[in-house]
Input
Amino acid sequence: MRKNIVAGNWKMNKNLQEGVAFAKELEAALAGKELKCDVVIGTPFIHLASIASSTKLGVAAQNCADKASGAYTGEISAAMVASTGAKYVILGHSERRTYYGETDAILKEKVLLALANGLTPIFCIGETKEEREKNIHFDVVKTQVEKALFDLSAEDFAKIVIAYEPVWAIGTGLTATSEQAQEMHAYIRKTIAAKYNNEVADNTSILYGGSANGGNAKELFACPDIDGGLIGGASLDVEKFIPVIEGF
Ligand code: PEP
Output
C-alpha cells in the first residue's frame, strides 16, 4: 500500500535555532491529531541531526553528493545524511537542476548512493512552461524518470517516492489544476507499470509540488493518483503548513 506523505521543503531558509524551534512547534501542534499522512520536513543540512534527534517528524535532506566520499570540498554524502538520522533525501529538485546543473546522469548516481545508505529519495520531476506549451510535458517527465530511475531493480524502485513538480508552478503561485496534476500523476503511474508492473506502480507514492497550500491541498489530495505534496513556501510557517497536512 502506498503512503500518503506531506513533505516540506524549506530550501535555503531558517537558521539552526529557527529550524529547531519550528520542528518542535510543528510536532506539538500535530500531537493528538489523527494524521492521515506521514509528515516530513526537508531542512538544510546543518539542521538535520538536531531535528532528527529532537523530534519524531520525518526529516529529509534537500540534496546529497553524487560521490560516496573523498576530496569533494563542500559536499555532503548520502552516508553523512543517513548518519544524522534523516530518513529521506529530496533529489532532482528543479532548482538543483537549473542552478547547479544537475543532469539525469548525476541524479542517477545520487539515487543509487541514497538507496545504498538506506535513504528514501523523494525524486522530483516536472516540465517547464515552454515544454508544456509545446505539448511535450509527458515526454519530458517520462525521460526524467527513465534516465535516472529505470535502471533500478523493481525492489529498489519500490523504495522511491516521486514528486511531480511542474517548474512553472514552483514558487509562482500558479498551481496546476487538480485535473492537470491528476492527468500527469496517472501518466507517471502508467509509465511505472509499463516498465515494472502494476503492483510496483500502485505502491509508488507520487506527490504533487508547485504552490500547493492550505487552500488547494484538499482538492489535489482527493485525486486518485495524488498521494500527497512537496511543499515549499507553505511549509515555512506552522500555521500555513498544518492546513496542507490536514488536506488529507
Ligand atoms: C518546492 O520547492 O518543491 C515547491 C513546491 O515550492 P512551492 O510550494 O513554494 O511552490
